[in-house]
Amino acid sequence: MPITTERPEPGITVVTVNAPPVNALTVRGWFDLGDAVRAAGEDPECHVVVLRAEGRGFNAGVDIKEIQADSGYTALIGANQGCAAAFAAVYDCAVPVIAAVQGFCLGGGIGLAGNADVVVASEEATFGLPEVDRGALGAATHLARLVPQHLMRALYFTASTIDAHQLHHHGSVHSVVPREKLDETALDLARTIAAKDTRVIRAAKQAINGIDPQNVHRSYRFEQGFTFELNLAGVSDEARQQFLDRGKNAG
């Protein structure tokens, strides 16, 4: 199963993404991830969620092959709705969500990390939105939660990446550690939160979300509208196919 849930210690729920080779999720995978995070928060025995991944990287976004294999727009609509559901599940989770990021965090990965309450990362972790190179738009909403506005724009327009140390400098990554210490670092932070009165922490999560200056759900869906326009114009299909062809040639 690409999405698994476990309770390694009292009060701590760990949701793991494991979808080789690069943790690019299918439509079903995005919805399953959202369901797992939401269910964890609804469990009164859960005080904090750790969102992590196995493999080379945290998340590479949507499964482009699935979208290209669909002659219509069903997979595209499903991917957009699935991403929105998963991002919302992280943001709206009744308890704090800690994202433990290793390797690459791209596209949809930015949506997850950007909506998390705390981010810890491995030393080699990189973050970015390659959307403009794929003929799509989205998750600028979440990248803007990780970096200042002008840097977000530069990264977005150039499809460039930024590393964990730079994000730590901006204060959006809590700690940067060697890859082998990432899981324990996330768990250690989770233990500190789990030890608090969960009634207070759950109220605090609602309060903090309530004073957020940006409505992340509305702004992300606004971005997605332009993705649909690009798809209707045929731009996105061309870009996705070029990406897949480059992968074939590299192989």
Describe how the helices and strands are arranged.
Blueprint: E1 3-9, E2 12-17, H1 27-42, E3 48-53, H2 64-68, H3 74-92, E4 97-101, E5 104-106, H4 108-115, E6 118-122, E7 126-128, H5 140-143, H6 149-158, E8 161-163, H7 164-170, E9 175-177, H8 182-194, H9 198-210, H10 216-232, H11 235-250
Parallel strand pairs: 2-3, 3-4, 4-6, 5-7, 6-9
Antiparallel strand pairs: 1-2, 7-8
- Give the helix tally: 11
**Share of residues in strands:** 15-25%
CATH superfamily: 2-enoyl-CoA Hydratase, Chain A, domain 1
Rounded to an integer, what's the Rg over CA atoms? 17 Å
Helix percent reads 40-55%
Could you spell the SSE succession in H and E letters?
EEHEHHEEHEEHHEHEHHHH
CATH domain class name:
Alpha Beta
Structural class: alpha/beta
